[in-house]
Design brief:
Elements: E1 4-9, E2 12-17, H1 27-41, E3 48-53, H2 76-84, E4 90-94, E5 97-99, H3 101-108, E6 111-114, E7 119-121, H4 135-143, H5 145-154, E8 158-159, H6 160-166, E9 171-172, H7 179-190, H8 212-223, H9 228-238, H10 244-260, H11 262-276, E10 293-297, H12 301-312, E11 316-320, H13 324-343, H14 349-357, E12 359-362, E13 373-376, H15 382-395, E14 401-404, H16 411-415, E15 424-429, E16 438-443, H17 449-461, E17 465-469, H18 477-494, H19 498-508, H20 514-521, H21 524-533, H22 546-552, H23 578-590, H24 600-620, H25 627-637, H26 647-652
Parallel strand pairs: 2-3, 3-4, 4-6, 5-7, 6-9, 10-11, 10-13, 11-12, 13-14, 14-15, 16-17
Antiparallel strand pairs: 1-2, 7-8, 15-16
Bound molecules: coenzyme A.
Coenzyme A (COA) binds at residues 21-22, 24, 60-65, 97, 99-101, 123-124, 127, 129, 275.
Length: 658
């Protein structure tokens, strides 16, 4: 396939890039554009050049797979300078996602026009990088320093209309206009005007500079250990003392250093892992069953969150509850989730109303008949869930998929409780289900490839990162969490305090420590679970009863103002509590444990080693298909710092640096 084509038509030159899936600036694209520019220079009749892309998007960035190989000329910065130096105007025709190197190419053009649905941005910081082909130099010269900092340091793309407001693009086409045709008309218009001064030859705007120190401090706080956002701000700052050429060289230097660094390697690893984790040999070539209608049994916190996710993805959704009052509550829960999406600007009032009209509530299971997929989200009890499965199986088509949202029960037992167990799957959502990206797709022993392929396609339609797992207690995520929670509790009895463990975790990059997280979730649910499990617990296994003692004193966590920590107001930060300290020390003494000190590094090493050991077991048992799947789960569901790449990735690298 030709990657870059050049066409001459009526004194215009049209360069078209065709490099699916995202028209990345791979070596073939860079050299193809360079060759095209050389040919155009030989043709004095050309009055303007259009640069566009075939497929769903303009260039959406560099080819990440090339980052691990030695760089091959022509490099992107040189291609952009060549575009900028053309004697006639170059018009970039933008659509899809104009990201990273794609936006840098567009900034090397003299004009930019875009389809209204285009999104533009610099996602490099999400990959541990900064723009490396002039983005930090050309952007502030075009849209000012403040908007450039926002675009480059937070990694989030903006819409075409904001881009037009900021001056990042020059024109938005009508949505039904052919983009290339619009670019041709625009080119004819600007061909008669003098070529604008290339951005890299302009001065940086002479406006008041931000308070860099406080900006960098704020960026660092938000980045929680990731370095790229800070370096992005510093690189923009540093060019105030440099010429444009020096600034370009400085940016490149920073980019190359970051590209070789551990954080970028980790972030690139997780980026690709998230995209590959659901590619299973068993589902290759299997066409997922089309789904229009989803049934959800249970309108509580989880059920309503799942229903909201389904509505937002465009499904007709039927919610079943045991009585009218519970149904009304379920509907209220969904409405309040949708209100949240409305407030965040994700949906309009009109869409909100339309989505609510697609939610059909009922107290009779018979209403589930049209559903091609039913998800139960009822109380975590095997017998309760079995009776729900039985009721569902009686009313839906024999090929309809029946899924459980259980977080730890034996789904194989559930599957075998009904006919056609090959259509049973686990869909373990994380709360709030309409927001959290992670979805563990639990493959039962008997599930067939059709069921699995359909569940994975459904997850993708919901916008989730689906991680296939096998059946075991806790699947991938909860199983690893309960293993390291146990170790943390041992450390508490042996000499550490909750605040020390939490501080070690947040210093490592977790948004919250284990004990503050338990306080937030509420301590009473796991207390009840432990009470249920008491009779079957291995008497020889070390058992830490501190969580039970807290609950016995009514300390259920943040909502009661007391848990592992104390909370003076509903919003105040967790405070170490002398009563808890005393309780812990008494318990150590009662067990005859001589308490000792734990350093932050020992705490983190212990947590990491436990995650990795449990991860190895999960891999050996075939519960996770790859080590990458474990990293994807821990990062997207359990707050593991993304820039560290996940516990299994860290295992392949040097020992932990805390
Ligand atoms: N380099 C190489 N491959 C890439 C890539 C990149 N920069 N970006 C995406 N891909 C691949 C994905 O691996 C996937 O491959 P597959 O079809 O074999 O699974 C395919 O392109 C589609 O990507 P995906 O993310 O699944 O599609 P999407 O439509 O949800 O999102 C993008 C498209 C471009 C918005 C998204 O992929 C993205 O954000 N890419 C990174 C952009 C970026 O960071 N650019 C700067 C690099 S310095």
């Amino acid at each position: 396939m030709t990657t870059v084509t050049l066409e001459f038509a009526d004194n215009l030159a049209i360069i078209d890039i065709n490099n699916p899936p995202i028209n990345a600036t791979s070596h073939a694209v860079r050299s193809g554009v360079m060759d095209a520019l050389a040919s155009i220079r030989q043709n004095p009749a050309v009055t303007a050049i259009i640069l566009c892309c075939t497929g769903t998007t303009f260039i959406a960035g560099a080819d990440i797979s090339e980052f691990n190989q030695p760089a091959r000329a022509p490099l992107l910065p040189d291609v952009i300078i060549a575009l900028e130096d053309m004697p006639v105007p170059v018009i970039a025709a933008l659509h899809g996602t104009v990201l990273g190197g794609g936006l840098e190419v567009a900034l090397g053009c003299h004009y930019r026009i875009a389809h209204p649905a285009t999104r533009l941005g610099f996602p490099e910081v999400n990959l541990g990088l900064i723009p490396g082909a002039g983005g930090t130099v050309r952007t502030p010269r075009l849209i000012g320093v403040e908007n450039a900092i926002s675009l480059i340091s937070n990694g989030k793309p903006i819409t075409a209309s904001i881009a037009l407001d900021w001056g990042l693009i020059d024109h938005i086409t009508k949505s039904d206009t052919n983009l290339q045709q619009a670019a041709i008309e625009y080119a004819r218009k600007v061909a008669t005007q003098p070529c604008p001064t290339p951005l890299a030859k302009r001065n940086i705007p002479d406006t008041k500079q931000p308070d860099w120190d406080s900006l960098i401090a704020k960026t660092a706080q938000k980045a929680r250990g990731a370095t790229a956002p800070i370096i992005a701000v510093e690189t923009i700052r540093d060019q105030f003392a440099l010429s444009a050429d020096q600034a370009l060289a400085n940016e490149r230097q920073q980019f190359v250093t970051l590209r070789e660094g551990e954080q970028s390697q980790a972030l690139r690893h997780i980026f690709m892992a998230e995209r590959n984790v659901a590619k299973l040999p068993t589902t290759q070539g299997v066409t997922p069953t089309p789904i229009k209608t989803i049934g959800i049994v249970g309108g509580g916190l989880m059920g309503a969150g799942i229903a909201t996710a389904c509505l937002l993805a465009g499904y007709q959704t039927i919610m079943i509850e045991r009585d009218e009052a519970a149904l009304a509550k379920g509907r209220e829960n969904v409405a309040s989730h949708l209100q949240g999406s409305l407030k965040r600007g994700i949906i309009s009032q009109e869409r909100n109303d339309q989505l609510l009209s697609q939610l059909h509530g009922n107290t009779d299971y018979a209403a589930l008949a049209p559903a091609e997929l039913v998800i139960e989200a009822v109380f975590e009890d095997l017998e309760v869930k079995k009776s729900v499965f039985d009721a569902v199986a009686r009313v839906v088509d024999s090929t309809a998929i029946i899924a459980s949202n259980t977080s730890y029960l034996d789904i194989n037992a559930l599957a075998h409780s009904i006919s056609n167990p090959e259509r049973v799957i686990g869909l373990h959502f994380f709360s709030p289900a309409h927001i959290m990206k992670l979805l563990e797709v639990v493959c039962t022993d008997g599930a067939n490839p059709q069921t699995l392929a359909t569940a994975l396609a459904f997850a993708r339609k919901l916008g989730k990162i689906a991680v296939p797992t096998g059946v075991c207690d806790g699947f991938i995520g909860n199983r690893i969490m309960s293993a390291y929670r146990k170790q943390c509790e041992y450390m508490i009895e042996d000499g550490a305090y909750p605040e020390q463990i939490d501080a070690a975790m947040t210093d490592f990059g977790f948004p919250m420590g284990l004990f503050a997280m338990q306080d937030m979730a509420g301590l009473e649910i796991s207390w009840k679970t432990r009470q249920r499990q008491a009779a079957t617990r291995d008497p020889n296994e070390r058992y830490v009863a501190l969580g039970d003692y807290l609950c016995e004193q009514g300390r259920f966590g943040r909502k009661t103002g007391l848990g592992w920590f104390r909370y003076d107001t509903a919003k105040s930060a967790p405070q170490p509590d002398p009563d808890v300290k005393r309780l812990i020390e008494q318990e150590s003494a009662r067990k005859g444990i001589k308490r000792r000190d734990f350093s932050p590094s020992e705490i983190i090493q212990t947590i990491l080693a436990t995650m990795q050991q449990e991860g190895d077991k999960i891999l050996n048992e075939g519960v996770a298909h790859t080590a990458d799947a474990i990293d994807v789960v821990m990062i997207n569901g359990y707050g593991f710092p993304r820039w560290r790449g996940g516990p299994m990735f860290m295992k392949t690298k040097s020992p932990v640096s805390s």
